[in-house]
Amino acid sequence: MLQSFKGDGANAPVAIQREAYSAPAFWIDTVDLCFDLDPAKTRVLNKMTLRRNPDVPAQALRLDGEELNLARVLVNGAGTSFKMDGDKLVLENLPEGTEPFALEIFTTCLPSKNTKLMGLYVSNDSFFTQCEAEGFRRITYFLDRPDVMASYTVTLRADKAKFPVLLSNGNLVEQGELEDGRHFAKWVDPHKKPCYLFALVAGQLVCREQRITSRAGHDHLLQVYVRPGDMDKTEHAMNSLMASVAWDEARFGLPLDLERFMIVATSDFNMGAMENKGLNIFNTKYVLANQATATDVDYSNIESVVGHEYFHNWTGNRITCRDWFQLSLKEGLTVFRDQEFSQDLCAEASARAVKRIEDVRVLRTAQFPEDAGPMAHPVRPDSYIEINNFYTVTIYEKGAEVVRMMQTLTGRAGFARGMKLYFARFDGQAVTCDDFAQSIADANPESPLATLLPQFKRWYSQAGTPRVAARGEYNADAQTYTLHLSQSCAATPGQSEKQPFVIPLSLGLVGAASGAALPLHGTGSAGENHLFVLTEQSQSITFDNVAEEPVPSILRGFSAPVVLDFDYSDAQLLTLLAHDTDAFNRWEAGQRLALRSATAALASGTNGPVLNAAYVEAMRAVLRHPTLDAAFKELVLTLPSETYIAEQITLVEPQRIHTVRESMRLQLASELHADWEQTFADHQDNGAYSPDPLSSGRRALAGMALNFLCLAAVASGDALWPGKTLQRFKDAGNMTDRFNALQALVGSGHELAAPALARFHSLFKDEALVLDKWFALQAGAPDRGGNVLPAVRQLLAHPDFNLRNPNRARSVIFSYCSGNPGGFHRADAAGYVFWSERVMELDSFNPQVAARLARAMDRWKRLAEPYRSAACEALKRVAAKPDLSNDVREVVERALAD
Known about the structure:
Elements: E1 4-6, E2 14-17, E3 26-36, E4 42-52, E5 61-63, E6 69-75, E7 78-79, E8 83-85, E9 88-91, E10 101-109, E11 119-123, E12 126-130, E13 149-159, E14 165-168, E15 171-177, E16 182-194, E17 200-203, E18 206-213, E19 219-226, H1 235-252, E20 260-266, E21 273-274, E22 279-283, H2 296-311, E23 320-321, H3 327-344, H4 349-371, E24 383-384, H5 393-410, H6 412-426, E25 430-431, H7 433-442, H8 448-456, H9 458-461, E26 467-475, E27 480-488, E28 503-511, E29 517-518, E30 530-534, E31 538-543, E32 550-554, E33 563-566, H10 570-579, H11 583-604, H12 613-624, H13 630-637, H14 642-647, H15 654-671, H16 673-683, H17 693-716, H18 720-731, H19 735-748, H20 753-764, H21 768-779, H22 788-796, H23 806-817, H24 821-824, H25 830-843, H26 847-854, H27 867-879, H28 886-896
Parallel strand pairs: 3-13, 19-20, 20-22, 23-25, 26-33
Antiparallel strand pairs: 1-2, 2-24, 3-4, 4-10, 5-9, 6-7, 6-10, 8-9, 11-12, 13-16, 14-17, 15-16, 18-19, 21-22, 26-27, 27-31, 28-29, 28-30, 28-32
Enzyme class: hydrolase
Pfam families: DUF3458, DUF3458_C, Peptidase_M1, Peptidase_M1_N
Function: Aminopeptidase N is involved in the degradation of intracellular peptides generated by protein breakdown during normal growth as well as in response to nutrient starvation.
């Protein structure tokens, strides 16, 4: 099993090392669980068949457990001696040899008091489970590790009136009545699984059902379970599930392998969703939607998350992780699959491009800072103290980019061949990232991936974001253009030296004068796009027959998760923005121009106009462009976030960044005022509501126009547009338009925001997810004279606020501490004091949520004074708490480390 190493001090957290992995001393073949469900005291009878692992020296059986009351232990039906070693149940007198033996363990647990929401817990008078990563040990004593895969039979017994629905993994084989108004349901999962994929649900639930026939001709029952009253919000989730089933079978030949597939929604959930075999448990945020309560973004997120959890059925469930260091084996791969799914559902190329830009924006604003901070870790980490802290954007989003590069290097068809080989080799097993990469390479022996596989796998072992420096030389006489490329990667905690990565760079050339896409000669192809694979520290590539001086379009489609350094002139960026055929680099050119203006203003300390006339005119041209997709226009006109701007400078003054970005917004609002009016007029009416990409894009652009029009109105004292915006808020026929109008009023700071917020609350006071939006909007509002923190403290005292509900806690506290840098980083340190109070308060009952909040201070060392010293004091205050959880301690101590 995984070995543990203690640091100095008796209470030092335990560090788990990847290189210390060893196979389990015992295998568990079958598990028969019987639950007598009672919120105050649930009884769990666990009957297992085990056998010794012949490849491991004979040793005691050490079973994981946490907060369990042990009543009985039997081996082959007879009592046996045992001992407790901390939380572990240790059995030494077990049968010799490798023949199977029976182990029976009877325990009780207290679901109603389980505030960690890990293991078996109660939410709104219903039972739910969350076992990933190490929650099953809170249900029964077990070998709680992913490489122990067993067959499960589960019997659930409960009061029928209180818990009429009884669900578990697999197929329902029997159900019936019991004495005293109780009933039972028996479930059998035909597929072996690790215990982290176990699930049960019991409660007052209703369901939407859909019967489908697969491409292979098999019939299946799909079910979405929700609380009574939410049935009208389940259609989109069901449609997304049906689309996911069809896509996975069509794209990768992976069919649904159970008679039924179930989704259950709960409002108390630490994560987004969980892929338990055949019984996915979801946060309500990613299931419930109708046009009155959910925005276009909600619809898109539901589609993506439903797809993600369903795709885990094969990439995570049928083939799972050998150990938790291999987490990206399932998560990175499945994020890639859900991204491909969402892109494939887009009917037009422009919508696919928008989806790609949105994904990259998440990577660059969340994962790149993580790569540069104290919690930096490889896609396959080398050690951890608390595994829950490593469900990160590095594991998920960067892991997905690593898989995407494999597809880029092997081609779409080649990658599909690799997936087929992967399942042929490892179906039903617990394996590693190396096993996956080897399968993709072996299926494509002529590909660059196969040739470069040992070097490519540095993406798994090296932390940090590589930087690619590029320099171009044009020889007009010879009509050649040479790109000189080099790569580097900064040191990260525990890794001072980095070896060169394999970096696929998609390249093109755009005529500086003509704006035309130039053919690429001398590269082995004469098309307009070339894939260059950078493997050395420095390499060059030369293009022939280049008739005019080009502007290089490098890293098209964001072909690798790197930072590109190229000294583009403003004129070159304007050329790419106007003419590049690659949508990503067209958007990127606009971002670079805006970022350049912001950093220049920060360096000079100017308080005047930030954006130059050429940039403003370029944005005007984008708005007026007759054929560009509305969603793409909205992305181009969205300025880089304050967080992303902060990552581009050495010494960060958050208040100054906030002031500069607000100045940029006001300048766009004022100088493009007539264009915003026309844009709103052209996009305000979209007919009957549909969450499709085209309609969503039009609503997004109309919402942006309202935001800018209200901003300009407040600056000029004009009451026209705030009044129109309030009326649109009142008349809106869908949540997207209504919330866009509310955002415009709140974001501009207009006095009409207060009555609009009050009206919004009165309309949706009984809709928990909508109230989350209401709370988050206020906590994330632009800070004007330090007004946000007092408002946030008032929100905590609001009757509808509940700190113990993760969604509600995130809506206020995370929106402020993590999503509102201008309001959070206060010179008087009050924001940091608030953060430390909330981290310690949350840690007392839900360490997992507390640890995620603690990450808000990852980048404190880059702050200017007085922020830096105050942030350090806040971190030390949390670290000094004597009963701090390992979850939070790991985060704050790494942040404080030199």
